[in-house]
UniProtKB/TrEMBL annotation:
Organism this protein belongs to: Salix viminalis
Entry superkingdom: Eukaryota
Family the entry assigns: Belongs to the GASA family.
InterPro entries: GASA
Keywords for this protein: Signal
Identification of the protein by name: Snakin-1
Signal peptide: 1-25
Pfam family, one: GASA
Length: 88
């Protein structure tokens, strides 16, 4: 019975880690892309916050520090409550 329980625990750990890996990879993807995107921002922490939110939802960030929003339509089309662009 102990061997069966240990095997079951091992299998569940392996399966759960395989489901968590894409989430962690996506977070590091967004962190890297947003640090590049916000490199020249006047208010760094705000830029990183909103870029991170947009990246998680859109799964992309335009290249460079400004412009190029045509590369990621979802990122380009997100608006705040005032109708202005949400993503930096």
């Amino acid at each position: 019975m102990k061997l069966f329980s240990a095997a079951l625990l091992l299998c569940s750990l392996l399966l759960s880690s395989s489901f968590l890996e894409p989430v962690l990879a996506n977070s590091s993807f967004c962190a890297k892309k947003c640090s590049t995107r916000c490199a020249n921002a006047g208010i760094q922490d705000r830029c990183l916050k909103y870029c991170g939110i947009c990246c998680e939802q859109c799964k992309c960030v335009p290249s460079g520090t400004y412009g190029n929003k045509h590369e990621c339509p979802c990122y380009r089309d997100k608006k705040n409550s005032k109708g202005k662009p949400k993503c930096p």
